[in-house]
């Protein structure tokens, strides 16, 4: 599960991806992550989760400073 991001269901039924620290929508791949369908939000969230895990692994392996 992502440490930095969360999926948030909006009142109109759309989804946003927000930073956990600020609860504000994030920009990902040049687009503000708001008014998403649930499927699109889940896909973007999965990518963010994978990137986060890869970064953590690189830090543990000493490949990222």
Characterise the protein shown here.
- This protein is an alpha+beta fold and 65 residues long.
- It has one domain (5-61).
- It has one helix at residues 38-61; strands spanning 5-9, 15-19, 27-28, 31-32.
- The chain has a two-stranded antiparallel sheet.
- It starts with a strand and ends with a helix.
Largest sheet: 2 strands, antiparallel
In helices, the fraction of residues equals 25-40%
Strand content: 15-25%
What are the low-pLDDT stretches, counting only 5+ consecutive residues below 50? none
The residue-averaged pLDDT reads 94
N-to-C terminal Cα separation, in Å? 23 Å
Please tally the β strands and state the result.
4
Structural class: alpha+beta
Basic shape? elongated
Order of helices and strands: EEEEH
Summed up, the domain count is 1
Radius of gyration: 13 Å
